[in-house]
Amino acid sequence: MIEPTAARPTRRTSPSAWLGQVLLYALFASLIGVFSHWPAYRQLAPDQALIKLSFTHDGQRVAACRQRSPAELAKLPPNMRAPMQCPRERAPVVVELDLDGKQVYRHVAMPSGLSKDGASSVYHRVPVLAGVHRIDVRLKDSPDGGGFDYTRTATVTLAPAHILVIDFDAEKGGITLQ
């Protein structure tokens, strides 16, 4: 025969425990309130603007695709017999940024991925004084030794706390300023 278990006695919480819990929650909430407003944080000085160079772009392929010969195709397993052989590796992306005639940034972004076949990413911030500036941006994504593939020159007026984003969009013709 199974013995009935004894019922657990219920405990009542005392008013002092409730008061202590309320005080601890109030202390925690006041600490969150204080540290959410202090110390004051400013991203930029009052007379500064910001230029952000930010994009992700696939460089061109290092080598062109080539047609496989019938003898090469015969040596391959049936599931691998693609008529074109295209190497995966991509060229690094080179970007330069000049501000008022002086180079402020130059970077060679290597392609991502184990086979170097992914996109190259660039992110750089340049705080500047608000006012009129001449911006020259150059981008090279081809493997040959020639010059830059895309260039953009613009004169911009930046207000205090204004953020100018330099991006790359091939569908819009290359380098964009937003």
Describe the structure using short key phrases.
alpha+beta, 178 residues, Immunoglobulin-like, four-stranded mixed β-sheet
How would you describe the overall organization of this protein?
The structure is a single chain. The mean pLDDT is 89. A hairpin with a 2-residue loop joins strand 4 and strand 5 (102-109). The protein has helices at 15-37, 70-75, and strands at 48-57, 66-67, 84-85, 93-99, 102-109, 120-129, 131-140, 150-158, 163-169, 174-177. It has a domain at 48-62 and 90-177: Immunoglobulin-like (Sandwich). The strands form three sheets. It has a four-stranded mixed β-sheet with strand order 6-1-9-10, with no helix packed on it. Strands 5-4-7-8 form a four-stranded antiparallel β-sheet, with no helix packed on it. Strands 2-3 form a two-stranded antiparallel sheet. The chain is of the alpha+beta class. It is flat.
